[in-house]
Design a protein that fits this description.
By secondary structure, this protein is mainly alpha-helical. Helix content is 70%, strand content 0%. It has 14 helices and no strands. Helix 3 runs antiparallel to helix 4 and helix 13 packs antiparallel against helix 14. It is elongated and about 80 Å long. It starts with a helix and ends with a helix.
Length: 301
């Protein structure tokens, strides 16, 4: 269907909504549920036509219909779809490298997010998730949620650590990652967060290699000692709290041991070889690969 036809249908559906809002006795006006379904179908069509900005407007119309029939859940869901469609429209502009990108789409997303939040209780898990999405487009917004869980805390700390890494605040990043490590081990729930613990294990080790902290101020000198010998011996010792080391793939453990030993020996050639091999691995994040390059650069001076 042509874009002009879709826009004509959108305007027609908007007029139906206006008629519903004007009619005092609702049974004499169009069916609210049917108009809501029309907006939803139009949104899908606009998405298929790669016009997310119009899809967002349709979802807003759908949210108004859901509000009229008292469906709070449907209203919130439609508002969230609208917010995400606005963000997709903004991303589309960025991909197309549009000059002087307007912030109207992010502003639209912001309004939809805040409107959805106003329909939810303070201690709602959905509200906490919405605030997290909202802060992705507006980091300075002063909104918090009373809802808290280990999963949300870990996600927030990891995001904060990534921001510290981007700002080259390596000490701050190490402290935040160590906070996650402590939180998980104190709760004795490592099995529930194995992927998180693996990421933190690698990132903390890379940060220690980069920071070159003396043993007197290291967070846990035995942590890096476990990687100071190439082979199984370096992984046999338990953590100071009696727990077992974080399980990592054997090939990665060997590379991390080689990295630490090369750093201690200040062997730049070996460091470069380890970096090249590690950067080819799929289980390293982009920030970890960047840290790895920083380590080599530091020892190459």
């Amino acid at each position: 269907m042509a874009s002009s036809d879709l826009i004509y249908q959108y305007k027609t559906t908007c007029n139906k909504l206006k008629k519903i809002q004007r009619v005092l006795i609702k049974r004499f006006g169009p069916s609210v549920s049917e108009v809501s379904d029309e907006f939803g179908a139009l949104a899908n069509s606009f998405n298929e036509a790669f016009q997310p900005e119009y899809a967002a407007k349709c979802y807003i119309g759908q949210s108004k219909c859901e509000k009229l029939i008292g469906n709070d859940t449907g209203e919130v869901e439609a508002l969230l779809r609208a917010a995400r469609s606005f963000r997709t429209a903004h991303a589309k502009q960025e991909r197309l490298r549009v000059s002087n990108i307007a912030h109207a789409y992010h502003e639209g997303a912001f309004r939809c997010y805040t409107q959805a939040l106003s329909r939810l209780p303070d201690k709602s898990v959905i509200g906490a998730a919405i605030i997290r999405e909202l802060k992705e487009i507006s980091p300075s917004v002063e909104l918090t949620s009373d809802f808290s869980s280990p999963c949300h805390r870990i996600a927030d700390l990891e995001r904060s650590a990534e921001e510290s890494l981007a700002g080259r605040d390596y000490v701050g990043a190490f402290e935040k990652l160590s906070e996650i490590y402590d939180d998980v081990t104190e709760r004795k729930c490592e099995a529930l967060y194995q992927d998180v613990m693996r990421r933190i294990e690698v990132s903390r080790l890379l940060l220690l290699c980069l920071l070159q902290l003396p043993p007197s101020v290291r967070y846990d000198h035995k942590f890096i000692e476990r990687y100071s010998t190439v082979g199984d011996a370096g992984r046999e010792s338990s953590r100071p709290d009696g727990g077992q080391p974080v399980p990592l793939p054997e090939e990665l453990v060997f590379l991390l041991q080689s990295l630490v030993v090369s750093c201690q020996a200040k062997d730049v050639e070996s460091l470069t070889a380890v970096r090249d091999e590690m950067c080819e691995r799929q289980d390293l994040t982009s920030s970890q690969q960047a840290l790895l390059k920083e380590v080599v650069a530091k020892y190459s001076k």
